[in-house]
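Could you please review the protein record set out just below?
***
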Amino acid sequence: MTDMFNGQADGSTLAEGSTLLAEGSTCLAEGSTLLAEGSDTHHPLFNRMEDGTLINLDDDKLHEECGIFGVFRHNDAPALTALGLHALQHRGQEAAGIVSFNGKVFKSQKRNGLVGDYFTKKRVLEKLEGHTAIGHARYSTTGDGALRNLQPLYADLKSGGFACCHNGNFTNGLTLRRDLVNAGAIYQSNSDSEVLLHLVARSKQAKLTDKFIEAIQELEGGFALLAMTKHKLIGARDRFGIRPLILGKLDGSYILCSETCALDIIGAEYIREIKNGEVVVITTDGIQSYFPFGEVAPRPCIFEYIYFARPDSVAGGKTVYEVRKKFGIELARECPADIDMVVPVPDSGVPAAIGYAQESGVPFELAIIRNHYVGRTFIEPTQAIRELGVKLKLNPIRSLVKGKRIMLIDDSVVRGTTSVKIVKMMFDAGAKEVHMRVACPPIKHPDYYGIDMPTQKSLLAATHNLEQMRDFMGATSLGFMSIDGVYRALGHPNGRDDANPAYTDHYFTGDYPTELRDINDRVADKQLSFLESEPVEE
């Protein structure tokens, strides 16, 4: 895809006369010349939509995908699933659901809100009594918040009850939906998970496992799937392993989940990651693995390390916290500055800021305090509350900041609106200089594999060069880690191998590992449902 920065191939953009601090890095200081001739220095008001409405402050961060958890043949399966989803809450806070099986019937409970709002209640867990269960913590990437779209989804098939849930996105899900509807299928939800139900139901294969495998061979995109029948727990990962799936064990019972932190909360043993393109079928006889996609080089999502995974999780054999510290170390090498203090943008910027401080030898200070208790209270605030902006969540310690040259470290920049407010907040607190460093490359391309990301025209780095971004934020200097720096921190000393990249990194490079059928065929422009229903409130 075309590089929108009109700069170096790795995304670096440096104005004439500015210094390249490290090969491939992206750093620019105040006063540097605009890179592109005739560039428009008038920046759009990113905190206001075209119709005049303000963007929610939270929309300036990448929204988590979803979290999935399943346990086979354990007497406390529903409670363990609820605990597992609680550990995966960072991956989705809109809604949660659990489907269980007790040997006779399937039971289902779904609610909008946090896992702890509903699934910690004794009466709810008693309703879910069973020995096998799967659960889902949701941030919707397709479908609305109505109960019909909450997962896991359930259907009565010829072979019996079938429940499923997934993390990620099918990039041909709408195309398949259109074809299935044209063939007479009746849809009950807007969720692309329902595609799997129909494909399994329509398969001519005799055995359920074969039906499932045939169904997922039609799916494109990035996904981790769980399915449950009266005799089986099934897990599957897309052919590139874009979305994560972990295998664990507790008291002899197998567990499948999105991250290792979900195993830790229940004291389960970590066994291994499900391989890319692998289907695992768990029965009372043990585990069987299938590889219906053949041998494909893995390309897991690099944003799991940058932002999504919990810092205490292990992904690809690497502790996420340690990787993020290494991001900070690489960032300090690529984009140094004369500063007095390194300050993280809480909470996700903390590990990288620690690494930056350690490498640069500059003191680390938690000079910004986050209020963790401002959540849905301000979904629909008054205009006066909106204007308070970032101060609702973040507040500087003035005595630390005053008169200091501050280095702010953040994990990523999406629209840039929050960065604008934080930089201004630090100057208002008395900072002499406010430098900004970002522990990933500029995000220039949208995601279609389960990350809820703005359209390309709403991404700051897709429409602004480096100096324009610095000017928009109001920072003294601005720097991003290079794509090679990210790879070096992940254990690839030579950086990114452009011919065979080890990770899915299209947000920075435009290199999508799969065909984007729904987007390319413009199927995504079609309305899915004409039924408007209110979300269920407890």
Notes: The chain has a mean pLDDT of 86.
